[in-house]
Design brief:
single chain; 174 residues; 2 domains; two-stranded antiparallel sheet
């Protein structure tokens, strides 16, 4: 009888071990997220983290991402990209490979919940703009949200190398 009870207890212990490990992993992940937000203002907590990123020429369905982090010196770094899905597009001149992108690398200053100031580089490459060559913007750019939008949009829309507007959007965290 003792052997049967010991066998049942051993089986129960082995069955519960994975659940205990899963609970421990969840607690560790939750603690890591909380520790990353320690020392931030309420407004910084809404902004620091991973956000979706889009440039309308690439896609509003297949998002990129941008990561906003508080660095040791107190600055908010902002790095990320949206890459086009690899495909061949038909254009009047023939087929071309689509390797379009938008890339951000710089810092963010929070003006208020509706206005972020990005300082750094924004690189875009779109097959039908600037003969498919990269466009580099370097400087300070305003990202603003209006009305009921769920993103901050870059206000300096005019592409410096071609006659078009670029909608670079950083979405609120979910």
């Amino acid at each position: 009888m003792k052997r049967i009870i010991l066998a049942i207890m051993a089986i129960a212990l082995m069955a519960s071990a994975p659940m205990a490990m899963d609970a421990k992993k969840k607690t560790t992940r939750k603690r890591a997220k909380t520790e990353n937000l320690t020392g931030l203002t309420a407004l910084e907590r809404k902004i620091v983290g991973k956000h979706m990123l889009t440039l309308q020429w690439i896609s509003w369905e297949s998002y990129g991402s941008v990561d906003i982090k508080k660095e040791a010196d107190g600055t908010l770094s902002c790095r990320g990209e949206q890459l086009a899905r690899k495909c061949t597009k038909d254009v009047e001149q023939g087929n071309i490979d689509n390797d379009d992108y938008v890339k951000l690398d710089g810092t963010i200053e929070i003006v208020d919940k509706d206005h972020l100031v990005f300082t750094g580089e924004i690189r875009t490459k779109v097959y039908h703009i600037n003969n498919g060559q990269e466009v580099l913007r370097s400087g300070t750019y305003n990202f603003v949200t209006k009305e009921n939008r769920k993103y901050w949009r870059m206000q300096e829309l005019d592409n410096p190398a071609d006659n078009c507007a670029d909608y670079v959007d950083i979405y609120f965290k979910r």
